[in-house]
């Protein structure tokens, strides 16, 4: 999870916090060209966007390359709950525990050959999602099965994994929850959805370039339907 923390000296001590937030939101967006900030909120000095996050939801967009989606969905359920994900991450020296909890792991269809994984958990290890997705791709190809996934979860001493990490194309952090912090989005819902729609469209185009395939052209209402998918992803 990447996070940017900005510490600012309050220029307007006579104004309310809500007004100050709106002022800084406007000023920051004036300076940014390719990034749009849709919400800003004051937090305590000891707040840490990474350490205080208690729930994260990621999505991973991909193109169906003749995968067995049904088998992939069934195999994804094996990841649900608390497990040792030693075999599904890139280990770092400072890692002391590989136990993580997955609350949701499912595959959704957007249009024809376009799909996405939706993964919700308390926290994730380095490259954990890309490792899990890579294993599920092999399940979809028939090169791994559900028992292989179970074995890798139950046996943390496996040295040679049967897969390569999935590409970073398509992986996005979409929602999160923090302890003791309630982010009240005052932004207009239409503006928020518009930003997310453009984000999804750009991601799908990038994924298409990363994985060139002879696939059917998306339907005419493909991007019109993205709005509903955005609402679904953010639930």
UniProtKB/TrEMBL annotation:
Keywords: Isomerase, tRNA processing
Gene Ontology biological-process entries: mRNA pseudouridine synthesis; tRNA pseudouridine synthesis
Residue intervals of the Pseudouridine synthase I TruA alpha/beta domain: 75-178
GO molecular function, one term: RNA binding
Entry-linked InterPro entries: PsdUridine_synth_cat_dom_sf, PsdUridine_synth_TruA, PsdUridine_synth_TruA_a/b_dom, PsdUridine_synth_TruA_C
Catalytic activity from the UniProt record: uridine(38/39/40) in tRNA = pseudouridine(38/39/40) in tRNA
EC number(s) on file: 5.4.99.12
Top-rank EC class of the record's enzyme: isomerase
GO cellular component: cytoplasm; nucleus
Keyword Metal-binding carried by entry: no
Transmembrane segments: none
One Pfam family this sequence matches: PseudoU_synth_1
SUPFAM superfamilies cross-referenced by the UniProt entry: Pseudouridine synthase
Family listed: Belongs to the tRNA pseudouridine synthase TruA family.
Protein name in the entry: tRNA pseudouridine synthase
Protein source organism: Plasmodium yoelii 17X
């Amino acid at each position: 999870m990447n996070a940017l923390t900005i510490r600012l000296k309050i220029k307007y001590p006579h104004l309310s916090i809500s007004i100050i937030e709106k002022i800084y939101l406007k000023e920051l967006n004036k300076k940014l060209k390719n990034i749009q900030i849709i919400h800003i909120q004051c937090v305590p000095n000891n707040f840490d966007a990474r350490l205080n996050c208690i729930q994260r939801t990621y999505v991973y967009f991909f193109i169906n390359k003749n995968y067995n989606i049904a088998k992939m969905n069934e195999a994804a359920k094996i990841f649900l709950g608390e497990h040792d994900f030693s075999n599904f991450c890139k280990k770092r020296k400072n890692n002391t525990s590989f136990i993580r909890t997955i609350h949701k792991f499912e595959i959704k269809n957007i249009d024809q050959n376009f799909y996405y994984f939706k993964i919700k958990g308390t926290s994730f290890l380095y490259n954990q999602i890309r490792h899990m997705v890579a294993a599920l791709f092999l399940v979809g190809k028939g090169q791994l099965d559900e028992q292989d996934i179970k074995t890798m979860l139950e046996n943390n001493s496996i040295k040679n994994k049967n897969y390569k990490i999935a590409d970073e194309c398509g992986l996005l952090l979409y929602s999160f929850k923090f302890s003791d912090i309630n982010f009240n989005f005052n932004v207009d819902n239409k503006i928020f959805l518009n930003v997310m729609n453009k984000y999804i469209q750009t991601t799908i185009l990038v994924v298409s370039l990363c994985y060139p395939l002879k696939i059917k052209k998306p339907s005419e209402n493909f991007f019109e339907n993205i709005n509903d998918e955005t609402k679904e992803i953010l639930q």
